[in-house]
Write a structure and sequence with these properties.
Elements lengths: L13 E6 L2 H11 L3 E6 L2 E6 L2 E7 L12 E4 L3 H10 L3 E11 L3 E9 L5 E9 L2
Parallel strand pairs: 1-4, 5-8
Antiparallel strand pairs: 2-3, 3-4, 6-7, 7-8
């Protein structure tokens, strides 16, 4: 049950970011990253990410900044997925970082950029070898 006075216990249903070129973004998010394009409305693309919506919209004001948010994709296969994205021409930022270690897993993170320079992340609990 949710409390009507707070956000505690509520699900995140949608994240939005802006881009300069909607056609280029469609190709990147749908074809390169493999996200399911749910629908398009006006200057916005709606993608499904595991039941959450990602809205990619056109920055309509000249000179308006793009992005402004980080999106992290669950990736327990971060090493293989990073290599696959790099092979598709995706710009990786630095190398895979280890953020946390437990007795059995390591929390790993790899940032990359979309064609408009928005930073995205692959984050996953990777079993220790």
């Amino acid at each position: 049950m949710t409390d009507s006075t707070t956000l505690a216990g509520r699900k995140l249903v949608q994240v939005a970011l802006t881009v300069k070129d909607l056609d280029r973004a469609r190709v990147f998010y749908r074809d390169t990253l493999g996200l399911t394009l749910m629908f398009e409305a006006g200057n916005m693309l709606f993608f499904d990410i595991g039941g959450q919506r990602l809205v990619v919209g056109l920055a309509e004001k000249p000179g308006a900044p793009v992005g402004g948010t980080y999106i992290y994709f669950d990736a327990p296969d971060v090493v293989a997925l990073s290599a696959a994205l790099k092979a598709k021409g995706v710009e990786l930022i630095g190398s895979i970082e280890t953020l946390q270690r437990t007795e059995t897993h390591e929390l790993k993170l790899q940032f990359f950029k979309d064609p408009d320079g928005n930073e995205l992340g692959l984050m996953g609990m990777v079993p220790k070898s």
